[in-house]
Amino acid sequence: MKSRIGPNGVHLFDRLSGLNVLLDELRPKEAAWSSSPRQVSIALTNVCDLHCGYCYAPKHKASLRTGQVLGWLKELDTEGCLGIGFGGGEPTLHSDFVDICKRAAGETQLAVTFTTHGHRLTPQLVEHLKGSIHFARISVDGVGRTYEKQRGKQFASLLRGMESIATLSPFGINIVVNECTVTELDAISELAQKVGASELLLLPQQATTVVASIDEVVGRALQDWVTNYRGKVRLAVSEAGAAGLPTCDPLPDERGLQAYAHIDASGMLRASSYSPVGAKIVDAGVLSALKQLRNTFEIKRERQS
Prior knowledge:
Blueprint lengths: L1 E5 L2 E5 L6 E4 L15 E5 L22 H13 L4 E5 L9 H11 L3 E6 L6 H7 L5 E5 L4 H8 L3 H11 L5 E7 L7 H11 L3 E6 L11 H12 L6 E4 L22 E4 L4 E3 L7 E3 L5 H19 L1
Helix pairs in contact: 1-2
């Protein structure tokens, strides 16, 4: 098991089983805490063959170089990161996607995950990825015609993708919750159980240059649905959309950049994929950019106080 030291104790994690153990009776001094965020998401590319109106990803073309990514992963691994999640854009469109996943799994102790729209998950691609992926996520924004309207792809093609992902690794379903999909949460949870998903991740729609965040009506409907949920698939929610929902945080003192960071397809380190503030990762590496970003936030807090 890999260990990570933080403000809540010593965190042990097994990437194969997903088992987490927190030794909270141990409270190491701050100087001993792991330097890296616990989890880092990496947009390998901005390229995507879908055009969803609520997508947050930048629309300029950008892709990370394989050597860059592998160097960052080894640094994060050494400094206490537990897992990385590849996204985009559509990560399977990165020319070295399979190689990056294989080397990440083989050369680090990181848990390797990725999020996909599912339409490129051919049996051949899945076979190449086997043994390199510890968890996968597939985006399912509505069912049937709602999905097809939201994503512009046939729902039947998505179902084939879910059949493929089920043979690769444990997987979860993501749903962007908005006025079109909030009424289909029951259908999505039933689908998740039917296809063997182990998690249903709720992503309340966030504002982009094209769409607004969910309004109060959708927010209340989501809260009511979660409160009355009796499904067997566990629920999770994005941190950005968690307000008002009954969440459980086993690491309450591990906040902000201690817990999570995002690297976009142009090599900027950000607090999240939605954050407008970032630090460019240069030759000094990820941890140097992380220190710079923390300093930026600290200066901002001091100015506001």
